[in-house]
Write a structure and sequence with these properties.
single chain; 362 residues; alpha+beta; 2 domains; six-stranded mixed β-sheet; 9 helices; ATP binding; Molybdate transport system ATP-binding protein
Length: 362
Protein backbone atom coordinates (compact mmCIF):
# COMPACT_ATOMS: atom_id res chain seq x y z
CA UNK A 1 0.00 0.00 0.00
CA UNK A 2 1.47 3.36 -1.04
CA UNK A 3 1.86 6.23 1.38
CA UNK A 4 -0.66 9.12 1.08
CA UNK A 5 0.42 12.19 -0.90
CA UNK A 6 -0.21 14.50 2.06
CA UNK A 7 0.40 13.28 5.59
CA UNK A 8 -0.06 15.81 8.37
CA UNK A 9 0.27 15.67 12.15
CA UNK A 10 -0.07 19.17 13.58
CA UNK A 11 0.20 20.35 17.18
CA UNK A 12 -0.13 24.06 17.98
CA UNK A 13 -0.43 25.25 21.57
CA UNK A 14 -1.74 28.69 22.48
CA UNK A 15 -2.69 30.04 25.94
CA UNK A 16 -6.41 29.49 25.35
CA UNK A 17 -6.40 27.03 22.45
CA UNK A 18 -4.71 23.83 21.26
CA UNK A 19 -4.84 22.44 17.73
CA UNK A 20 -4.06 18.73 17.67
CA UNK A 21 -4.98 16.97 14.41
CA UNK A 22 -3.80 14.18 12.15
CA UNK A 23 -5.09 13.48 8.63
CA UNK A 24 -4.02 12.44 5.13
CA UNK A 25 -4.93 13.11 1.50
CA UNK A 26 -4.23 11.02 -1.57
CA UNK A 27 -2.76 12.46 -4.78
CA UNK A 28 -5.49 14.33 -6.65
CA UNK A 29 -7.89 14.19 -3.71
CA UNK A 30 -9.83 17.23 -2.45
CA UNK A 31 -10.43 17.28 1.30
CA UNK A 32 -12.85 19.83 2.78
CA UNK A 33 -12.15 21.16 6.29
CA UNK A 34 -15.22 22.53 8.01
CA UNK A 35 -15.96 23.69 11.53
CA UNK A 36 -17.27 26.62 13.57
CA UNK A 37 -15.34 29.86 13.98
CA UNK A 38 -12.39 29.31 16.30
CA UNK A 39 -12.16 25.59 15.51
CA UNK A 40 -8.60 25.92 14.18
CA UNK A 41 -9.12 25.94 10.41
CA UNK A 42 -7.06 29.07 9.74
CA UNK A 43 -4.31 27.90 12.09
CA UNK A 44 -4.15 24.58 10.22
CA UNK A 45 -3.87 26.33 6.84
CA UNK A 46 -1.16 28.62 8.21
CA UNK A 47 0.90 25.61 9.33
CA UNK A 48 0.44 23.79 6.01
CA UNK A 49 1.41 26.92 4.06
CA UNK A 50 4.53 27.38 6.20
CA UNK A 51 3.34 30.69 7.63
CA UNK A 52 3.19 29.25 11.16
CA UNK A 53 5.69 26.99 12.88
CA UNK A 54 3.85 24.34 14.92
CA UNK A 55 4.87 23.13 18.36
CA UNK A 56 5.02 19.55 17.16
CA UNK A 57 4.14 17.08 14.43
CA UNK A 58 5.23 16.40 10.87
CA UNK A 59 3.96 17.37 7.42
CA UNK A 60 4.95 15.33 4.40
CA UNK A 61 4.19 16.28 0.78
CA UNK A 62 4.90 13.42 -1.58
CA UNK A 63 8.37 12.19 -0.65
CA UNK A 64 9.38 15.49 1.03
CA UNK A 65 9.11 16.39 4.71
CA UNK A 66 8.36 20.12 4.94
CA UNK A 67 7.68 20.36 8.68
CA UNK A 68 9.19 18.32 11.51
CA UNK A 69 10.95 18.97 14.82
CA UNK A 70 13.93 21.13 13.91
CA UNK A 71 12.83 21.44 10.25
CA UNK A 72 10.75 24.22 8.70
CA UNK A 73 10.71 24.63 4.93
CA UNK A 74 9.75 28.27 4.19
CA UNK A 75 6.58 29.04 2.19
CA UNK A 76 8.31 29.89 -1.09
CA UNK A 77 10.10 26.51 -1.16
CA UNK A 78 7.21 24.42 0.10
CA UNK A 79 5.31 23.80 -3.15
CA UNK A 80 2.00 25.02 -1.72
CA UNK A 81 -0.45 27.29 -3.56
CA UNK A 82 -3.14 29.42 -1.93
CA UNK A 83 -6.48 30.73 -3.18
CA UNK A 84 -8.15 32.86 -0.49
CA UNK A 85 -11.40 34.83 -0.18
CA UNK A 86 -9.74 37.89 -1.68
CA UNK A 87 -7.85 37.55 -4.96
CA UNK A 88 -4.86 39.59 -3.70
CA UNK A 89 -3.48 40.08 -7.21
CA UNK A 90 -0.49 42.35 -7.71
CA UNK A 91 -2.22 45.65 -8.64
CA UNK A 92 0.58 46.90 -10.90
CA UNK A 93 0.73 43.72 -13.02
CA UNK A 94 -1.54 42.52 -15.79
CA UNK A 95 -3.45 39.25 -15.46
CA UNK A 96 -0.83 37.57 -17.67
CA UNK A 97 2.04 38.84 -15.54
CA UNK A 98 0.24 37.89 -12.32
CA UNK A 99 -0.20 34.30 -13.47
CA UNK A 100 3.30 34.05 -14.89
CA UNK A 101 4.84 35.39 -11.67
CA UNK A 102 4.91 32.03 -9.86
CA UNK A 103 6.67 30.05 -12.59
CA UNK A 104 9.11 32.92 -13.14
CA UNK A 105 9.90 32.97 -9.40
CA UNK A 106 10.75 29.26 -9.70
CA UNK A 107 13.23 29.91 -12.49
CA UNK A 108 11.02 29.10 -15.51
CA UNK A 109 12.10 31.13 -18.60
CA UNK A 110 9.83 34.05 -19.50
CA UNK A 111 8.46 32.50 -22.70
CA UNK A 112 7.57 29.22 -20.98
CA UNK A 113 6.06 31.03 -17.96
CA UNK A 114 3.88 33.21 -20.19
CA UNK A 115 2.81 30.16 -22.22
CA UNK A 116 1.73 28.46 -18.99
CA UNK A 117 -0.08 31.65 -17.94
CA UNK A 118 -1.97 31.91 -21.25
CA UNK A 119 -2.94 28.25 -21.03
CA UNK A 120 -4.38 28.70 -17.54
CA UNK A 121 -6.10 31.99 -18.33
CA UNK A 122 -7.87 30.21 -21.17
CA UNK A 123 -8.75 27.34 -18.82
CA UNK A 124 -10.42 29.73 -16.36
CA UNK A 125 -12.26 31.56 -19.17
CA UNK A 126 -10.18 34.71 -18.70
CA UNK A 127 -8.04 34.76 -21.85
CA UNK A 128 -9.50 38.15 -22.81
CA UNK A 129 -8.27 39.61 -19.51
CA UNK A 130 -4.60 38.87 -20.18
CA UNK A 131 -3.58 42.52 -20.56
CA UNK A 132 -5.89 44.01 -17.92
CA UNK A 133 -4.78 45.05 -14.46
CA UNK A 134 -6.91 44.06 -11.44
CA UNK A 135 -8.52 47.50 -11.11
CA UNK A 136 -10.26 46.88 -14.45
CA UNK A 137 -11.70 43.48 -13.42
CA UNK A 138 -14.80 42.49 -11.48
CA UNK A 139 -14.49 40.46 -8.27
CA UNK A 140 -15.38 37.27 -10.12
CA UNK A 141 -12.83 37.97 -12.85
CA UNK A 142 -10.12 38.67 -10.27
CA UNK A 143 -10.86 35.36 -8.53
CA UNK A 144 -10.58 33.48 -11.84
CA UNK A 145 -7.17 35.03 -12.44
CA UNK A 146 -6.19 34.26 -8.84
CA UNK A 147 -7.07 30.60 -9.39
CA UNK A 148 -4.89 30.51 -12.50
CA UNK A 149 -2.06 32.16 -10.55
CA UNK A 150 -2.35 29.62 -7.71
CA UNK A 151 -2.11 26.71 -10.16
CA UNK A 152 0.59 28.17 -12.40
CA UNK A 153 3.65 26.89 -10.44
CA UNK A 154 2.09 23.38 -10.33
CA UNK A 155 1.88 23.28 -6.51
CA UNK A 156 2.05 19.93 -4.77
CA UNK A 157 -0.79 21.10 -2.49
CA UNK A 158 -3.45 23.75 -3.18
CA UNK A 159 -5.05 25.47 -0.19
CA UNK A 160 -8.53 26.86 -0.89
CA UNK A 161 -9.46 29.23 1.93
CA UNK A 162 -13.18 29.94 1.41
CA UNK A 163 -12.50 31.00 -2.19
CA UNK A 164 -16.18 31.69 -2.97
CA UNK A 165 -17.12 33.56 0.22
CA UNK A 166 -16.48 37.05 -1.18
CA UNK A 167 -18.24 36.47 -4.51
CA UNK A 168 -21.80 37.58 -5.23
CA UNK A 169 -24.61 35.09 -5.82
CA UNK A 170 -24.22 35.31 -9.60
CA UNK A 171 -20.45 34.74 -9.71
CA UNK A 172 -20.18 31.99 -7.07
CA UNK A 173 -21.89 29.11 -8.97
CA UNK A 174 -19.76 29.67 -12.09
CA UNK A 175 -16.59 29.83 -10.00
CA UNK A 176 -17.58 26.67 -8.11
CA UNK A 177 -18.04 24.77 -11.38
CA UNK A 178 -14.77 26.15 -12.70
CA UNK A 179 -12.90 25.08 -9.57
CA UNK A 180 -14.26 21.55 -9.84
CA UNK A 181 -13.38 21.25 -13.53
CA UNK A 182 -9.90 22.71 -13.30
CA UNK A 183 -8.81 21.05 -10.03
CA UNK A 184 -9.90 17.69 -11.44
CA UNK A 185 -8.23 18.31 -14.78
CA UNK A 186 -4.94 19.21 -13.08
CA UNK A 187 -5.25 16.20 -10.70
CA UNK A 188 -4.55 18.71 -7.98
CA UNK A 189 -4.36 17.66 -4.35
CA UNK A 190 -6.28 20.32 -2.42
CA UNK A 191 -7.50 21.28 1.02
CA UNK A 192 -10.73 23.30 1.00
CA UNK A 193 -11.87 25.38 3.97
CA UNK A 194 -15.56 26.27 3.66
CA UNK A 195 -18.74 26.98 5.61
CA UNK A 196 -20.93 25.98 2.66
CA UNK A 197 -22.22 22.41 2.35
CA UNK A 198 -22.66 22.92 -1.40
CA UNK A 199 -18.96 23.74 -1.80
CA UNK A 200 -18.06 20.54 0.01
CA UNK A 201 -20.53 18.42 -1.97
CA UNK A 202 -19.44 19.78 -5.36
CA UNK A 203 -15.69 20.03 -4.77
CA UNK A 204 -14.57 17.61 -2.05
CA UNK A 205 -14.03 13.86 -1.97
CA UNK A 206 -13.79 13.78 1.81
CA UNK A 207 -14.69 16.02 4.74
CA UNK A 208 -12.80 16.64 7.99
CA UNK A 209 -14.77 18.37 10.75
CA UNK A 210 -12.84 20.42 13.32
CA UNK A 211 -14.23 21.51 16.69
CA UNK A 212 -12.10 23.12 19.41
CA UNK A 213 -8.89 22.12 17.67
CA UNK A 214 -9.80 18.44 17.30
CA UNK A 215 -11.18 16.31 14.46
CA UNK A 216 -14.65 15.20 15.61
CA UNK A 217 -15.71 13.40 12.42
CA UNK A 218 -14.38 12.67 8.95
CA UNK A 219 -15.21 10.55 5.94
CA UNK A 220 -16.62 10.66 2.39
CA UNK A 221 -18.39 13.97 1.82
CA UNK A 222 -21.88 12.68 1.10
CA UNK A 223 -21.75 10.24 4.00
CA UNK A 224 -20.65 12.85 6.55
CA UNK A 225 -23.23 15.41 5.42
CA UNK A 226 -26.02 12.83 5.23
CA UNK A 227 -25.18 11.31 8.65
CA UNK A 228 -23.69 14.17 10.71
CA UNK A 229 -22.37 13.43 14.18
CA UNK A 230 -21.84 17.00 15.40
CA UNK A 231 -24.21 19.94 15.72
CA UNK A 232 -22.11 22.11 13.41
CA UNK A 233 -22.05 19.53 10.61
CA UNK A 234 -25.78 18.96 10.96
CA UNK A 235 -26.42 22.67 10.70
CA UNK A 236 -24.44 23.24 7.51
CA UNK A 237 -25.95 20.06 6.06
CA UNK A 238 -29.39 21.52 6.74
CA UNK A 239 -30.38 18.88 9.32
CA UNK A 240 -31.45 18.93 12.96
CA UNK A 241 -29.38 16.93 15.45
CA UNK A 242 -29.99 15.95 19.07
CA UNK A 243 -27.19 14.21 21.05
CA UNK A 244 -27.76 11.60 23.72
CA UNK A 245 -27.62 7.87 24.49
CA UNK A 246 -29.41 5.21 22.44
CA UNK A 247 -32.53 3.55 23.85
CA UNK A 248 -34.40 0.58 22.42
CA UNK A 249 -36.83 2.92 20.67
CA UNK A 250 -34.85 6.13 20.29
CA UNK A 251 -32.55 8.31 22.34
CA UNK A 252 -32.32 9.83 25.82
CA UNK A 253 -30.83 13.33 26.03
CA UNK A 254 -28.57 14.59 28.80
CA UNK A 255 -31.56 16.18 30.59
CA UNK A 256 -33.53 12.90 30.51
CA UNK A 257 -35.86 13.73 27.61
CA UNK A 258 -36.73 10.81 25.34
CA UNK A 259 -36.61 11.35 21.58
CA UNK A 260 -38.31 8.51 19.72
CA UNK A 261 -36.70 7.32 16.50
CA UNK A 262 -35.45 4.47 14.31
CA UNK A 263 -32.16 2.93 15.46
CA UNK A 264 -29.60 2.68 12.64
CA UNK A 265 -26.44 0.73 13.50
CA UNK A 266 -26.30 1.77 17.14
CA UNK A 267 -26.58 -0.40 20.26
CA UNK A 268 -28.63 0.50 23.30
CA UNK A 269 -26.51 2.45 25.78
CA UNK A 270 -24.07 3.82 23.20
CA UNK A 271 -23.55 7.56 22.60
CA UNK A 272 -25.86 8.44 19.73
CA UNK A 273 -27.43 11.29 17.78
CA UNK A 274 -31.01 11.68 16.59
CA UNK A 275 -31.20 13.39 13.21
CA UNK A 276 -34.19 14.66 11.22
CA UNK A 277 -34.72 17.23 8.42
CA UNK A 278 -36.32 20.60 9.25
CA UNK A 279 -39.02 19.78 6.68
CA UNK A 280 -40.15 16.93 8.97
CA UNK A 281 -40.89 19.34 11.84
CA UNK A 282 -44.49 20.44 12.31
CA UNK A 283 -45.10 23.71 14.13
CA UNK A 284 -48.02 24.46 16.45
CA UNK A 285 -49.11 27.44 18.50
CA UNK A 286 -50.54 25.09 21.16
CA UNK A 287 -49.31 21.68 22.37
CA UNK A 288 -50.57 19.16 19.78
CA UNK A 289 -52.40 15.95 20.55
CA UNK A 290 -52.27 12.79 18.50
CA UNK A 291 -49.61 10.82 16.61
CA UNK A 292 -46.30 12.72 16.97
CA UNK A 293 -44.23 11.13 19.74
CA UNK A 294 -41.63 13.89 19.79
CA UNK A 295 -43.21 17.13 20.95
CA UNK A 296 -41.27 19.88 22.70
CA UNK A 297 -41.73 23.58 23.50
CA UNK A 298 -39.41 26.16 21.92
CA UNK A 299 -39.05 29.89 21.70
CA UNK A 300 -38.92 31.28 18.17
CA UNK A 301 -35.46 32.84 17.86
CA UNK A 302 -35.39 33.78 14.17
CA UNK A 303 -37.39 33.68 10.95
CA UNK A 304 -35.24 33.07 7.86
CA UNK A 305 -36.80 33.23 4.36
CA UNK A 306 -35.29 30.53 2.12
CA UNK A 307 -36.85 30.62 -1.33
CA UNK A 308 -40.15 28.74 -1.27
CA UNK A 309 -39.96 27.97 2.46
CA UNK A 310 -39.35 29.85 5.68
CA UNK A 311 -36.91 28.42 8.22
CA UNK A 312 -37.83 28.90 11.86
CA UNK A 313 -34.90 28.76 14.27
CA UNK A 314 -35.58 27.69 17.86
CA UNK A 315 -34.16 28.55 21.27
CA UNK A 316 -34.93 27.07 24.68
CA UNK A 317 -37.80 28.18 26.91
CA UNK A 318 -37.42 28.38 30.71
CA UNK A 319 -38.03 24.92 32.13
CA UNK A 320 -37.89 23.30 28.69
CA UNK A 321 -35.17 21.17 27.08
CA UNK A 322 -31.94 23.08 26.41
CA UNK A 323 -30.97 20.93 23.43
CA UNK A 324 -33.58 22.64 21.24
CA UNK A 325 -31.25 25.64 20.80
CA UNK A 326 -30.55 26.02 17.08
CA UNK A 327 -33.07 23.44 15.89
CA UNK A 328 -34.89 24.40 12.71
CA UNK A 329 -38.31 23.86 11.16
CA UNK A 330 -39.18 24.59 7.53
CA UNK A 331 -42.71 25.89 6.92
CA UNK A 332 -44.54 27.66 4.13
CA UNK A 333 -45.00 31.44 4.06
CA UNK A 334 -48.73 30.77 4.44
CA UNK A 335 -48.08 28.92 7.70
CA UNK A 336 -46.07 31.88 9.00
CA UNK A 337 -49.04 34.14 8.28
CA UNK A 338 -51.65 31.73 9.67
CA UNK A 339 -49.75 31.29 12.94
CA UNK A 340 -48.91 35.00 13.18
CA UNK A 341 -45.30 34.12 13.88
CA UNK A 342 -42.96 36.63 15.47
CA UNK A 343 -39.55 36.16 17.14
CA UNK A 344 -39.98 35.55 20.86
CA UNK A 345 -43.19 33.53 20.58
CA UNK A 346 -43.44 30.18 22.37
CA UNK A 347 -44.30 27.37 19.94
CA UNK A 348 -44.38 23.58 19.85
CA UNK A 349 -42.20 21.57 17.48
CA UNK A 350 -43.38 18.06 16.68
CA UNK A 351 -41.50 15.32 14.80
CA UNK A 352 -42.74 11.83 14.05
CA UNK A 353 -40.55 8.95 15.22
CA UNK A 354 -40.59 7.55 11.68
CA UNK A 355 -38.83 10.72 10.46
CA UNK A 356 -36.07 10.51 13.09
CA UNK A 357 -32.91 8.40 12.55
CA UNK A 358 -30.75 7.45 15.54
CA UNK A 359 -27.18 6.36 14.81
CA UNK A 360 -23.77 6.28 16.55
CA UNK A 361 -22.27 9.56 17.68
CA UNK A 362 -18.75 8.38 16.76
Amino acid sequence: MTDPWLSARVLVRRPAFTLDVEFTAEHGEVVAVIGPNGAGKSTLLGVLAGLLVPDGGEIRLGDRVVTAPGLHVPPHRRGVGLLAQQAMLFPHLTALANVAFGPRAHGVPRAAAEARARELLAAVDAADLAHRRPARMSGGQQQRVALARALAPRPELLLLDEPLAALDVDAAPAMRSLLRRLVRAERQTALLVTHDALDALVLADRVVVLTDGRIVEQGPTREVLARPRSAFTARIAGLDLVPGVALADGLRTADGTTVAGRLDGVAVGEPAVAVFPPAAVSVFAQEPKGSPRNVFPVRLAAIEPRGDVVRLRASAVPGGPGWVDGLAADVTPAAVADLGLEPGMVLWFAVKAAETAVYPAR
